[in-house]
Amino acid sequence: MVASTVAAAWVNRWDAQQERYVADREERFAVLCDIVESSLATVAAPVVLDLGCGPGSLAARLLARLPQARIIGLDYDPLLLSLARTHYGDTIEWVDTDLNGTEWPKHVPNTIHAAVSTTALHWMPGSRLAELYRGLATRMAPGGVLVNGDHLKNGDERIDALAETVRARRATRVGVDTNEEWWPWWDAILADPNFEHQAEVRARRVAERQKDDGHNGNELTVNDHTRLLRTAGFRSAAPVWQVGDDTVLVAVK
Fold it and tell me: How far apart are alpha carbons 250 and 253 in whole angstroms?
């Protein structure tokens, strides 16, 4: 069992690393929580999924806003889930499952009231993301929301380039452009003997995914996402917040 102090240090380092790429990460989290809290104001015991929950940063913030909710974090990275379980505890349900696969619905109640994700769904191939959206729509209660915060393209090369410039200059202005990068964080934690077992399991899963050409991510635009969501069964979908290409997209069932 990893010590809680070790997990806390790694989660804090993760949060700082992520801010290099999402300078307004805390504001994005707050916006996602605002939307979910407002949408579920009349639901006594809501069920909320965090898709690709990583080490639990968003799930924990949601629980602070909605202490009456059942929060379920789903991820396929055993190392990040280990951090989440140790740092945030069992007040949130942490589920080891692959959103790209067919097993995740077994871990989800038949009725859910919201699903959230942040900087995760862009890793999924478009066809499998469409399947995920359909699976969520079938379980989503009327009036429920799916809220996705991510770097989403517009589809116009010039606009997309300008949006990336806005994001980069925002990071410079708030002083996070020199924060630790993605790969050095991973190199460091994978070398930490506290996570030897999780690192081995993760390496096997990464190797399996590399054999599968269907796990190469996507370049879906905002319009692509809204089309997939409406086709899946959500009655409306549109962005509600944006800084550069950093977007919060909401779909309502």
Answer: 10
Rg over alpha carbons for the chain, rounded to the nearest Å, is: 18
Instruction: Give the predicted TM-score (pTM) of the model.
Output: 0.96
Place 216 in a pLDDT band, splitting at 50, 70 and 90. low
Structure tokens given for 48: 């909320």
The average pLDDT across 130-140 equals 97
Q: What is the mean pLDDT of residues 227-241?
A: 98
What is the DSSP track for the chain?
Answer: ---HHHHHHHHHHHHHHHHHH-TTHHHHHHHHHHHHHHHTTT-SS-EEEEET-TTSHHHHHHHHH-TTSEEEEEES-HHHHHHHHHHHGGGSEEEE--TTSSSGGGGS-S-EEEEEEES-GGGS-HHHHHHHHHHHHHHEEEEEEEEEEEE-B-S-HHHHHHHHHHHHHHHHHTT-TTSPPHHHHHHHHHT-GGGHHHHHHHHHHHHHHHT-TT-S----BHHHHHHHHHHHT-SEEEEEEEETTEEEEEEE-
Q: Are the C-beta atoms of residues 253 and 234 closer than 8 Å to each other?
A: yes
Q: Measure Cα distances from 115 to 140, 178, 221, 240, 252 in Å.
A: 9, 32, 20, 16, 11
CATH class given for the domain over 4-252: alpha beta
Q: Which two tokens stand for residue 244?
A: 């550069």
Phi/psi at 241 (nearest 5 deg)? -160, 140
